[in-house]
What we know:
Hypothetical Protein, Haloacid Dehalogenase-like Hydrolase, Chain: A, domain 2, 8-stranded mixed β-sheet, alpha/beta, single chain
Amino acid sequence: MNNKILFVDMDATLLNDDKTVSARNKEAIQKMLGAGHYIALATGRSVESGRVVARELGLTRPGCYMVAFNGAVLYDCAADRALLKRSIPIDVVEGIFDRAAKAGIYAQTYNSTDVITRRHTKELDYYLKRSGMAYKISPNVLDMLKEEPQKVLLIDLKDKKRLLKFQNDHLRWEQGKCNSFFSCRQYLEYCPINTSKGTCVEYLRNMLNMPMESTIAVGDEQNDISMLKAAHMGIAMKNGIQELKNAADYVTEQDNNHDAIAEVIEKFIL
Length: 270
């Protein structure tokens, strides 16, 4: 049997709009694992937030992995440990926060368990409701960090154009320091240089000594493009952005609210 590995985005891909996983998707994942295939949840979320979903799905056996922080962390769910970890230098983190503050845009980063930010805002409440994470607030974010973080997230709930302008205005500044991309229209993410979901596809495939032909990736947003391109079969969600669909080998017939991941597993893996 040719074992395959499925890299699957979480929000608006594996998860319904209500942030749950359908019974059919759960069943398909268990059938896939039972047949000897592998799975890697691939998310912009933190390890702590992703582990909640992994545990709900029972992804604690060997062959279950997680790509967190858009590729800054590769996590072995069975061993409960990080296999790969990349970070953003502290001075770059401070630079992003300062530039976001001048633009009037909310910013947050993370330690191992908490969201770290400078003030309590509606953007923080929006994020916490969807992630279930704890948080800490300090005027000096650096005081709350024991080590370099894996990501800085900028949030604008009203106007993506403001985030786009911020990204474009700072493209030259970020060169050689970090990567930026959107994970949804409200979230502009800054991650370590030369890091993406796609880099973890390559790393995990090589670590498991699996051929390129064994890899399948599914996503819906801009931060999933590198993952689809790195996999042998790149699949865009029906509800995904057009830019991602243009880069895909296949577009699902169903959306995230109608068992699209079960469709992928049944069509391409089982």
